[in-house]
Amino acid sequence: MALSSIKLTAISCCFILALLCCVSCSKLAIMSTPKKQAVASNSPLAKQAEQQFWDTLHQGNYNDISQTEKLLTAAYIENPNDPSLAAHLGFTHIWKIAERQREKKLDPRIVNQIILAKKYFADAVQLAPNDARYLGFYGDSLLIEGKIFNDERQQTKGYFVLLDAIKKWPQFNYFTAGYSMSILPAGSTQFNQALAWQWKPLDLCAGQTIDKNNPDFKPFMKLATQQGPARACWNSTIAPHNFEGFFLNMGDMLVKKGNWQTAIKIYNNAKLSPTYAQWKYRQVLEERIRDAEENVAVFNQPSKLTDMPSEPTMMFNSRFSCMACHRE
């Protein structure tokens, strides 16, 4: 071998080794840098921001989202180690885009809401990795953003994050994961997976396999609890009409699949809630039951997350996408 070739080979080897060393050093430097640690906020600003978040959410004041976001952001800048503030910021942004039908005119910049939601849910997960709710919402934001910007790799990442979230809290995240996939085409593998995921929490909450031909939940109402993982099956102070909202969405998904007869039975389960009479969306449910067969075609019309959907539309794409569960 010529001397010049030997020198060239030696130089190349040295370059590769140096490059590998740099990569290793960068990884080592990152790994050795301390992670953010969760620190709860107790400042007057944080307390004010949290209170306004809950008031705005439970009263369904969509038009007050901007002011609520402003307060939460100020509080989070004051203490960027508070996972609750991060998560509530994320939820505020995802609420803004989810119920975009309530806007007077749709601004294309509405898509920035899902970008911000993803950022804040990622912060919440980093600060509170054991909170399966945050992980589920983070997976949703990844999936939705990937769908909007046609990024299949990100959608795949979001799907696997959701699978992890389901493992950590199945009663909560089977719904969370399936809900964000409900606007996919009814014939797609992903939609069928999402619909199957809606049956799973019913089985878990009932403690037995629900009869899919006669899904009457009345015998299981005595199991209502506010304790443990099963609390996700029922209404709570956080989601005063979680029970009603769950069956409204599941009915919509069954209608979209063409199984409108079973959907009517699922819709009717919402009426079993002891707070059904106070639910603001009773009329929506009654209309769903009345128009179930007709809505098969309506719910299968193509829809984008950047569109201004017209009524009636799937719950996920509606003006009550979040409020069906969270409005008092």
Describe the structure.
The structure is a single chain. The chain is mainly α. Helices cover 62% and strands 0% of the residues. It folds into two domains: 41-168, Tetratricopeptide repeat domain (Serine Threonine Protein Phosphatase 5, Tetratricopeptide repeat); 170-328, no CATH class. The longest helix is centred in the first third of the chain and has 30 residues, at 3-32. The radius of gyration is 23 Å and the shape is globular.
Principal-axes geometry comes out as globular
How much helicity do the residues have?
55-70%
Approximately what portion of the residues adopt beta-strand conformation?
under 5%
Low-confidence stretches: none
Reported for the largest beta sheet, the result is: none
The assembly state of the depicted protein chains is: single chain
Radius of gyration based on Cα positions: 23 Å
pLDDT averaged residue by residue = 92
| Separate helix tally | 14
Structural class label:
mainly alpha
Q: How many structural domains does the protein architecture include?
A: 2
What order do the SSEs take from the amino end to the carboxyl end, as H and E?
HHHHHHHHHHHHHH
